[in-house]
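Example 9 (inverse folding). The structure is encoded as follows.
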């Protein structure tokens, strides 16, 4: 899910600013069981089979039901768009917990068409980390992750200060 900052007039203006966009990224896990929360979405996929087609879904499930219940554990970092021009204008929020989808539900998404035909292997190769800092948010821990180390930040400091007093 892509959001743009309200301080910019529209998506295109925001996409040209270092703090313009935020992406909530949810990962999927292939399972043998169907995810009932995706049924309504899945049933409408044939209506948007081709690029630039759209449909309205009435009485759609809530965002919480459609994604994951525990949104407290996530990684965040400054990164880029995954499509050209790949500008470094995105604050990524990557959730640790995955959304289960059956193999058949994943296949329904693969039947959608993009510019190059069916949407298979439509991913950007892994990018180098360079000097990027990745933070992990967790209810019980706050982490800072970079190329060489992990620091258990505020919680450990708080515990240490309380023990040494």
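The amino acid assigned to each position is listed next.
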């Amino acid at each position: 899910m892509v959001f743009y900052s309200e301080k910019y007039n529209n998506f295109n203006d925001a996409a040209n600013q270092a703090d313009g966009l935020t992406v909530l990224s949810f990962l999927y896990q292939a399972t043998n069981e169907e995810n009932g929360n995706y049924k309504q979405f899945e049933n409408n996929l044939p209506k948007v089979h081709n690029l630039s087609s759209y449909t309205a879904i009435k009485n759609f499930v809530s965002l919480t039901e459609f994604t994951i219940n525990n949104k407290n554990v996530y990684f965040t970092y400054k990164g880029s768009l995954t499509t050209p021009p790949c500008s470094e204008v995105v604050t990524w929020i990557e959730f640790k917990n995955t959304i289960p989808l059956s193999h058949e539900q994943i296949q329904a998404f693969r039947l959608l068409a993009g510019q190059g035909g069916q949407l298979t292997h439509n991913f950007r190769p892994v990018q180098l980390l360079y000097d990027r800092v990745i933070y992990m948010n967790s209810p019980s821990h706050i982490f800072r992750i970079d190329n060489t180390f992990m620091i258990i930040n505020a919680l450990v400091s708080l515990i240490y200060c309380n023990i040494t007093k």
